[in-house]
């Protein structure tokens, strides 16, 4: 079975991890610091805090923004559930706004229609690796007294109007899962423009520990002292994982280039094919394509999906609208509230997309899909 996504691990990646295993630090040590510095440089120079997953990053980001009961978080239904569920865990009310019909990105006009004086965060998702329209979303957030969050699980390495992902929203979350644009095994990061938010994110992911003597409330202990002012969790990434991440960052430009080549090859093949719709791209965005989301028209998505799987082509669907999940449906969210997202879901199939995919592999996918829809 040709997988729809896969990590790319080089001998240099293996040696980078092995070097850590032969050294003195396994968990939170100097390689974590080096990796966070490298992610910061990639993301416009803002502080980066690494963590154990993209989901952990979202939880940390909402905690750093002090999301809680009574707050509203406006977000897209066309995403993995964690974009919404991590805010819900903090007690926020989730408000879903529809997506643009062609890109499946959060539609600023739909956001404008639902923001209220309780809106605290507008959380966009860079679906498939294509950055959302952050300038417009930021203007809406600023008028509402809210913050923007960019879920960049798909888009690390991409650009919007010449600015890198990580420099687009007030807070950005990243995922380094094996199928993503680079990997630390499992892992993620939060990038925050406001240093105070970044510090809260750091402390939340570090069990809430405060180690700055100037902030201590207990002042008569010795040099070993540390204390907790707010509850946190242990979402710390390891030196082992960060060694892999540092090595992968050296390859990110090559990964991004190959993903663009695969996208162009798919686009050229499928644009003239009846019953198939290729992904849209704005001229001001330089995506870091994580997915290739082709749309199958005429109500044939399941038929074509099963045909591709039967032919040994590993495909996936990304994503069921978040509010269709029973945890949201049982809370009163109704189908039909975001028609563009629901129609996109009914048509979408993610074709194989990863840097080690060969041209012959791509041609096999093209031929199989073209034959199935003919």
Poorly predicted regions:
none
Q: How many domain regions?
A: 2
Question: What's the overall average pLDDT, rounded?
Answer: 98
Q: What's the CATH architecture name of the largest domain?
A: 3-Layer(aba) Sandwich
Task: Report, as a whole number of angstroms, the end-to-end distance.
Answer: 23 Å
Strand order of the largest sheet: 1-9-8-5-4-2-3
Helix content: 25-40%
Write the H/E string, N to C: HHEHEHEHEHEEEEEHEEHHEEEHHHEH
CATH T-level topology of the largest domain:
Aspartate Aminotransferase, domain 2
CATH homologous superfamily name of the largest domain?
Answer: Type I PLP-dependent aspartate aminotransferase-like (Major domain)
How much of the polypeptide forms β-strand, as a percent range?
5-15%
The dominant shape is globular
The count of helical stretches stands at: 13
User: Care to count the β-strands?
Assistant: 15
Structural class: alpha/beta
Largest sheet features: 7 strands, mixed
Please compute the radius of gyration using only Cα atoms: 21 Å
CATH class of the largest domain equals: Alpha Beta
């Amino acid at each position: 079975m040709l997988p729809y996504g896969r990590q790319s691990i080089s001998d240099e990646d293996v040696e980078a991890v092995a070097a850590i295993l032969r050294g003195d630090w396994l968990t939170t040590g100097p390689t974590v610091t080096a990796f966070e510095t490298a992610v910061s440089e990639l993301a416009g120079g803002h502080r980066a805090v690494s963590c154990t997953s993209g989901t952990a990053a979202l939880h940390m980001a909402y905690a750093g923004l002090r999301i809680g009961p009574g707050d509203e978080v406006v977000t897209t239904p066309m995403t993995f559930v964690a974009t919404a569920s991590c805010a819900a865990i903090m007690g926020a009310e989730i408000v879903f706004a529809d997506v643009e019909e062609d890109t499946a990105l959060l539609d600023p006009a739909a956001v404008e229609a639902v923001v209220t004086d309780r809106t605290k965060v507008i959380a966009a998702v860079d679906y498939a690796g294509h950055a959302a329209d952050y300038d417009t979303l930021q203007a809406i957030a600023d008028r509402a007294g809210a913050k923007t969050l960019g879920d960049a699980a798909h888009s690390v390495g991409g650009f919007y109007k010449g600015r890198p992902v990580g420099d687009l929203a007030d807070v950005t979350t990243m995922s380094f899962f094996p199928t993503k644009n680079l990997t630390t095994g499992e892992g993620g990061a939060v990038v925050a423009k406001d240093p105070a938010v970044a510090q809260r994110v750091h402390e939340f992911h570090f069990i809430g520990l405060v180690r700055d003597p100037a902030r201590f409330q207990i002042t008569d202990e010795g040099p070993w002292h540390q204390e907790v002012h707010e509850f946190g969790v242990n979402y710390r990434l390891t030196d082992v994982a960060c060694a892999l991440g540092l090595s992968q960052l050296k390859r990110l430009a090559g990964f991004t280039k190959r993903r663009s080549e695969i996208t162009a090859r798919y686009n050229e093949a499928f644009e003239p094919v009846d019953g198939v719709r290729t992904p849209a791209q704005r001229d001001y965005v330089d995506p870091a394509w994580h997915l290739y989301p082709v749309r199958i028209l005429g109500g044939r998505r399941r038929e074509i999906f099963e045909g591709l799987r039967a032919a040994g082509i590993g495909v996936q669907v990304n994503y069921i609208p978040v509010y269709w999940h029973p945890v949201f449906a049982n809370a009163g969210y109704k189908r039909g509230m975001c028609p563009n997202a629901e129609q996109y879901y009914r048509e979408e199939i993610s074709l194989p997309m990863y840097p080690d995919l060969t041209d012959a592999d791509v041609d096999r996918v093209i031929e199989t899909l073209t034959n199935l829809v003919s």
